[in-house]
């Protein structure tokens, strides 16, 4: 593959704009048995035959647990001003509650100290899908008590790291944890039950509210929640297709955003779930807790979707409750190796829409990226022109949203490193840094170099 990089990006971002990259614990750390770490639901799921691509697991991943100093040095070389990482709950609380594993906390202390020493600001995500298996054995996110255990976890983390970490996000993409984990079965714990999915949705959001309250009481001043958004468009203007898009948008986007920023679930979504026999298990005071004030909202965006109502079961397990007759259309134009279409203009529209729903709430792009079939050349380079183009187009889309009035404060590329892509295993490469999984050698890709140029242009 030859490099056909586009012209240099000429858009400008406001002073103080944060340029970073993001990762997640289970996807990069490896060392799943080190220093008393307990098993998580992703350890269990990935070791269950047939659940992941070629049976791949995160047992080794990118060995970040032992190579974190090398990875932080890479961040500094790229000029990143910030690094978004997640903490493995079961590395800190092996049973999810009770006994604290200081050796696990010590790893994150070392990582944070290394980041600060390199001039890279740590942005900590408390939960990126890897629930301790011990809590899953007690019902996991279908059990309301798990939300209270999350608050306990928040207290432990802030007690250990609150003197050095300023920016905190409670959850990453609760939609995936709830609906991909409990409705479609694509993610851990791999269940396909509408009632479980509804309960998990509410209890995850309750955990966010309870955790935010604890962090705020502890003195944290930069608190966020990270949601993934997929704009939904009807295939035609028929009432059936328009309603299909409404239903998918409701569960993908509005069901998670609106409770957090307005204190209420969308009425149409509440009705949809009740009609499907899976009502949200809301108790008195829950919505007030969920709507704890935020300092910023994390926005993850990868692609948009076009949907249609088929009128009959599609034969595919839907990620959405009561949506078994709704189908996704194949994307028009080029797709990434994940099969995702590329739609940068929809990113601009999404950011302006979120700003209209949550006026005055700063936004941070906490994930945005693309997977391509990257290879290292004999000269030791990785030419990824498709990712360079994707990066440039989406940064331009963010800039356009800022020009339109969206208060976007930062951008974190997904991902810093090639890593374990969940059920897709090691077959999908999202990194701006290539990882040879046999040798663990890191090689900055052309996209990483292009991103570094953007960062340098803003110094």
TrEMBL record:
It catalyses: Hydrolysis of terminal, non-reducing beta-D-glucosyl residues with release of beta-D-glucose. Its EC number is 3.2.1.21. GO terms for molecular function: beta-glucosidase activity. The keyword Hydrolase applies. Substrate binds at residues 27, 128, 172, 302, 414, 421-422. The keyword Aminoacyl-tRNA synthetase does not apply. The active site is at 173 (proton donor), 367 (nucleophile). Belongs to the glycosyl hydrolase 1 family. This is Beta-glucosidase.
